[in-house]
């Protein structure tokens, strides 16, 4: 079964950190770039971070640049999103996806004191 599964979300105070993980199975993970997007309550999807198939090129949105770091381990079939200095506006449901059609179910991040 083709699948992406996110994990690592939770409740954290402002200024705190979380590490999200995206685990792939059932497809040639190392052939795909991976993108993280998020959806805040009542808002549309927002692109967050991207990493290419080889893991040697990445991009971050302006809103998270300098705070978030994306990495991948093709041998393990995982992508991680290290999120530091979290802000209340980072509260959202975070999804990883590969290509247009392979999406995870999301993991919830809430930043609140």
Secondary structure layout plus pairing:
Elements lengths: L2 E5 L2 E3 L5 E8 L8 E6 L5 E7 L6 E3 L7 E6 L4 E6 L8 E7 L3 E2 L3 E5 L2
Parallel strand pairs: 2-11
Antiparallel strand pairs: 1-3, 3-8, 4-5, 4-9, 5-6, 7-8, 9-10, 9-11
Question: Brief overview, please?
Answer:
The chain has strands at about 5, 10, 20-25, 35-40, 45-50, 60, 70-75, 80-85, 90-100, 100-105, 105-110. With about 110 residues, the protein is mostly beta strands.
What can you tell me about this protein's structure?
- It contains no helices and 11 strands.
- With 113 residues, it is mostly beta strands.
- The strands form 2 sheets. Strands 2, 4, 5, 6, 9, 10 and 11 form a 7-stranded mixed sheet that branches. A 4-stranded antiparallel sheet has the order 1-3-8-7, with no helix packed on it.
- 29% of the residues are buried.
- The model has no long low-confidence stretch (mean pLDDT 97).
